[in-house]
Amino acid sequence: MIMAGLEELKKKLAPLFDAEKGFSDGSSSMDPCESYMVSDGGTVNLLSQSCGIYNINELGLQKRSSWMSDDNIDGKEKTYRCASHEMRIFGAIGSGATSVVQRAIHIPSHRILALKKINIFEKEKRQQLLNEIRTLCEAPCYQGLVEFHGAFYTPDSGQISIALEYMDGGSLADVLRVQKRIPEPVLSYMVRNLLHCATFVGTVTYMSPERIRNESYSYPADIWSLGLALFECGTGEFPYTANDGPVNLMLQILYDPSPSPSDKSFSPEFCSFIDACLLKDADARPTAEELLSHPFIRKYENARVDLAAFVQSVFDPIQRMRDLADMLTIHYYLLFDGPDELWRHTRTLYNEDSSFSFSDKVSTGPNEILASLSNIRRTLAGDWPPERLVHVVEKLQCRAHGQDGVAIRVSGSFIVGNQFLICGDGVQAEGMPNFKDLSIDIASKRMGTFQEQFIMEPGSVIGYYFISKQELYIMQ
């Protein structure tokens, strides 16, 4: 019976879907000329007939209008310097149907970012990747939309990482897991910002009927995806059964009536907005510009929606602060105990009002502080590499400082070695050994102890924190 049911599903979907090959090549939702190539030098060329060529390697991304010229004649060339070796990765914070998202710090700028990793060798994921990169490169910046920092390719894994502004409030899925529903005024505020971008990139879960039928991609498909996501955020429930596999999900989208929120639980404006987005006829759906004039958007446009306060009310601020303190502490000591080419970036961790205190001497400003720290660093390194001393952070405490800053107090030991270590079960950087796995007897290897305090304050861009005050105490 089960096998017969599967065969019946295949017959209903044929020739829309080939269970062995995925979506049919005959009428792909990508342009026929859109494809990719990987060069011997480790560069991925994503080809988009409509938007040009995206060259991506380990150093970053370059968008060009054609193969023929390297000159930026038409002003459409864009370069995003975003190198893989400049990223300090702190592990996964989420995953979806096509990608894994990790937290990272961009070492030269000290900025916390989110890295979205997608495998280019799987066709469906590659199509998603091209759509996202094209959208991020071409969409105008608008307040409230995530900022794009670039992308890089890692040949060993076959993955392209998209670097985005880090949203420490988590994803909408994270919010829904805790909050269950998102209030209408908040949704209206978010959707208004999203509509200015006029695009919504989704996976098969949010795919419109015409996309399932392999018709050409167009903006009405994005409007459907927006409506479906908005329905889920507002009601707390996905309107289709998504656990029975993609084939069954696509059949529901094609043949079931479009979902509509209950008019007993939600405002008429919200219900009308969803109904307009989820019209089966793509040509009948409103454009992004028309939706900006919809009563659901106008109803709350003068409401004072504090999105930050809403997110802060959903998640535990203490855990977020601890994660932040762990990342910033690890980043600082990996710079201090790391190679000289990375240490030079430390200067931009301070501003002109920053201060550093050590041994009754106070240094102020980036230049003085870096000179003082460099002297201490040379002393700890010694003249003979096997006698080099590194930090082991044994205890880390943190508390809120001001509105968005964090005060960090660390204590630990100096041991002979070549790698900074941190004890505890907090956030760990990728590539760092886990202290528990090393079986190190700190007491027998201790060459001295230290205590250090940092006041970290947010800078002018999201995700960047600078050291406003630092105090160091070293004991023999």
TrEMBL record:
One of its GO terms (molecular function) is MAP kinase kinase activity. PROSITE patterns: NTF2_DOMAIN, PROTEIN_KINASE_ATP, PROTEIN_KINASE_DOM. Its EC number is 2.7.12.2. Keywords: ATP-binding, Kinase, Nucleotide-binding, Serine/threonine-protein kinase, Transferase. The keyword Transit peptide does not apply. ATP binds at residue 116. SUPFAM superfamilies: NTF2-like (SSF54427), Protein kinase-like (PK-like) (SSF56112). It catalyses: L-tyrosyl-[protein] + ATP = O-phospho-L-tyrosyl-[protein] + ADP + H(+); L-threonyl-[protein] + ATP = O-phospho-L-threonyl-[protein] + ADP + H(+); L-seryl-[protein] + ATP = O-phospho-L-seryl-[protein] + ADP + H(+). The keyword Signal does not apply. Residues 1-297 form the Protein kinase domain. It comes from the Eukaryota. Residues 324-474 form the NTF2 domain. Belongs to the protein kinase superfamily. STE Ser/Thr protein kinase family. MAP kinase kinase subfamily. This is mitogen-activated protein kinase kinase. It comes from Coptis chinensis.
